[in-house]
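Action item from last week, closing it out:
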Amino acid sequence: MRARFLCASLFLLATPIVAQRTIVRWSYAPFATPGDAAFIVEGNRIHQACGPFGERGACLYVFSEDKVFHAADGFGAKGSGAFLLEGNDLFRAEGAFASKSTCVLQLDRAKVFRSEGVFCTRSVGGFVLDGNTVYRAEGPFANKADAVLRVEGDVPMIALLAILAGL
């Protein structure tokens, strides 16, 4: 009896505690038909998804509240800066401390515009956020077009913007 209790407690202690996992899937056509898994957001890391069911692959990005870093290896060690979030503007970042560079995306309510330059000059529409689905946006007013991604779970806005900046 004592041996069983010891084995059971060792098994419970040996199981890893995993942060809540969010799967970001590809989505197709105007009706947002879900496709294969594209990204896994787990804890403060964005992983590449492997297979249709979303097995965790190599780590792509490591993020905090306002900074996103490239992963230095497949396990999620923090590398050089990738993006920096300032208000509603997402900037490219450089170096180990994520120094601000040029603007990439600009968030305006449920619309995400592509931007350029240091002053975030708005260019054509990039994406439209509608519930848990991300649509492509067309034209200067960001009219909704075909679906691109579908999010299953909660994802921090900085993680979603980093994924969208890579598309």
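Closing note: The CA atoms of residues 110 and 129 lie 5 Å apart.
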